[in-house]
Amino acid sequence: MYPYAEGLLLISKQHRDELMHDAQRWSLIREARLARRSRRASAHHNDVDAPAVNRPTGTLAACAPRVMEPAR
Predict the structure, then answer these.
(1) Cα 41–25–7 angle (5° rounding)?
(2) Residue from 40, 22, 37 nearest 14 by CA
(3) What does the alpha-carbon distance between residue 8 and residue 6 come to, in Å, rounded to a whole number?
(4) 36: which residues sit within 8 A by CB, 6+ positions away?
(5) CB-based contact 7:14 (threshold 8 Å)
(6) DSSP assignment, residue 67?
(7) What is the C-alpha to C-alpha distance for residues 66 and 44, in angstroms, rounded to an integer?
(8) CA distance 63 to 39
């Protein structure tokens, strides 16, 4: 099929380079995905100062029941 060894060597080198390129691309995609997930997770864990909707709030003085004030 391939009469020359150099042609076979060239084709196998190109195929190996394509495989290496694909492996590097998938590795970079995996690293980017893991980095994005870890940043997202750390952002949620470090978000203690930000107000949340379902967090209970303490009692405030302004929310206490009003007492009747004397008329002035």
Answers:
(1) 170
(2) 22
(3) 5
(4) none
(5) no
(6) P
(7) 38
(8) 38
Q: Which two tokens stand for residue 66?
A: 């009003």
Measured between its terminal Cα atoms, the distance across the chain in Å is 110
Torsional class of 64: left (φ above 0), alpha (ψ -120 to 50), beta (otherwise)? beta
pLDDT in tens, 6-63: 888 999 999 999 999 999 999 999 999 999 988 888 776 655 555 555 655 555 555 5
DSSP state of 46: T
State pTM to two decimals. 0.43
Alpha-carbon separation of residue 21 from 2, 32, 35, 36, 44 (angstroms) = 25, 16, 21, 22, 35
